[in-house]
Amino acid sequence: MRNKRRYDSEFKQEAVRLVTEDGLGIREVERNLGITHGVLKGWVQKHHDQQEAALSGGNSPLSPEVELKQLRKENERLQRERDILKKAVAIFSTDPHRYSGS
């Protein structure tokens, strides 16, 4: 499995600012900063969602609709991960000597 790279909040805010205030493209900023493809889009979306919530006077940073959308997306991702792990278990359990180096 790949190690997930962690970015601190300052780095995320600066990357989002490059897109939202400086008008640079998401892919361009990802490439220039070495951010994994697609990650910055999520940060920008979260920024927009928080801005909308602040402007609408919402008490929470996320509206129920936005939170539901995020939870559904996370649920889909977790289901895909589970399915991949099920397939891996099936592959490795078919012939235990095949992958053990014996």
Shape: flat
> Total number of helical segments?
4
Q: How many strand units?
A: 0
Give the N-to-C terminal Cα separation: 23 Å
Radius of gyration: 19 Å
Helix fraction, binned, reads: 55-70%
Count of distinct structural domains: 2
The secondary structure category is mainly alpha
Order of helices and strands: HHHH
Mean pLDDT: 83
Percentage beta strand: under 5%
What ranges have pLDDT less than 50 throughout 5 or more consecutive residues?
none
Q: What is this structure, in a nutshell?
A:
The chain contains four helices and no strands. The protein has helices at residues 9-20, 26-33, 39-55, 64-94.
Write a structural description.
This protein is mainly alpha-helical. It has 2 domains: 9-61; 63-95. The protein has helices at 9-20, 26-33, 39-55, 64-94. It is flat, with a radius of gyration of 19 Å. The model has no long low-confidence stretch (mean pLDDT 83).
Secondary structure topology:
Blueprint: H1 9-20, H2 26-33, H3 39-55, H4 64-94
Offer a few descriptive terms.
102 residues, mainly alpha, 2 domains
